[in-house]
User: Fold this.
Amino acid sequence: MKARALHPWQVSPHEAIAIQKRLRTEVSTEPTLGDIRYIAGADIATSKESPRAYAGVVVLSYPDLEVVEERGLEAEVRFPYVPGLLAFREGPALIRVFEQLTTEPDVLVFDGQGLAHPRGMGIATHLGLVFDKPSIGCAKSLLYGRYQEPGQEKGAWADLRDPQGNIIGAVVRSKPKTTPIFVSIGHRIDLVTAIRLLLDCTRGVRIPEPTRLAHNLVTRLRRGEALPKDQLRLW
Assistant:
């Protein structure tokens, strides 16, 4: 995959906010998906206290959700920890991993936010723009917005709204009677399609397989564990 150079990454927090506001105008919420063959899940682990980051991407076939490729790396982060600007702290490492893929994913799913962000520029939106790919934010917790609790059955969902009442995502029950996940548009996809796709990628647990497996990969990287010999790797 090839990343577009939309802006420099070594900037001040003030400059980063200006970049987010500019990029927000380029986001598309129109679906552009054709046939889906591969879905990529991405996750990254960083610490407020440490400059180290562990980034991982897992590519799955669709609809059977078999692992086709996984890549990971340990990298140094240079941008400070600033809430709302995590894409500038985490984005460069994730871009390096995506650029090593030999399998071109049709959809990118990020463990994080998309439009459900104070400036509508979570990591899923930001990197969706960088790669100009359909992308989805799939977060475990709420960052921004308000909602009413959805029903307890799998597939129930409720609108996530900003303070002005605009819909910025959905609160989705991916497993009966469990804490919901927070789904938002990244880029080049509509919300209903994003919800349906993530529900289709759920296999009896709360977290959809793309980000669940990416999280597991990152956990192995942090522990210094090797990947299976038949998997691709970068670190």
In short: Residues 32-223 form a domain with the archaeoglobus fulgidus dsm 4304 fold fold (CATH 3.30.2170.10). The two ends are 18 Å apart (CA to CA). The helical segments are 13-24, 86-99, 123-131, 191-200, 209-223. Residues 229-235 have pLDDT under 50 and may be disordered.
